Fold:
Amino acid sequence: MSELFHVSDKGDIARFDPRPSDYTDHPVVWAIHRARLPNYLLPRDCPRVTFYANEKTSRADRERFLGENRIVVAVEEAWLERIAAENLFLYTMPQAPFALHDATAGYWVSREPVTPVYRDVLTGLPDAIAAHGATLKALPSLWALRDAVLASTLQYSIIRMRNAQGR
Structure:
């Protein structure tokens, strides 16, 4: 069973063609590993701070940020209604021809076109996030959490903060 996925708001993608990226020297198709999938079960433009512990995370940071949670996906309260209403499409990708791009982020890339193996419709995104082992938290603003997570020993992914409400 493949562990690579692509999440999209488009449900009619029969083939993924490589596209230019600011993060690679050549056009690629992106995929995400199952372990980081909760980071992407949100509307594309939704700002978020996601984090989890690894072997380098201090006990104090585990207690302060995670408590009993394994993975946290924090969003702005202003996005909750849209998150609840949005449907996404989860494309299962074949392992080949992908290569690991960033192990921490769970990013894989292919320089070749990729035909997905399967497509599923995701409804109820908060429940989908929980089903993948993460806790969704809503805050009035993400900036203080972002700054604290950056200064912590946690593993994190901070996505689309350009769309966050101002400090």
Q: What stands out?
A: The radius of gyration is 16 Å. The mean pLDDT is 96.
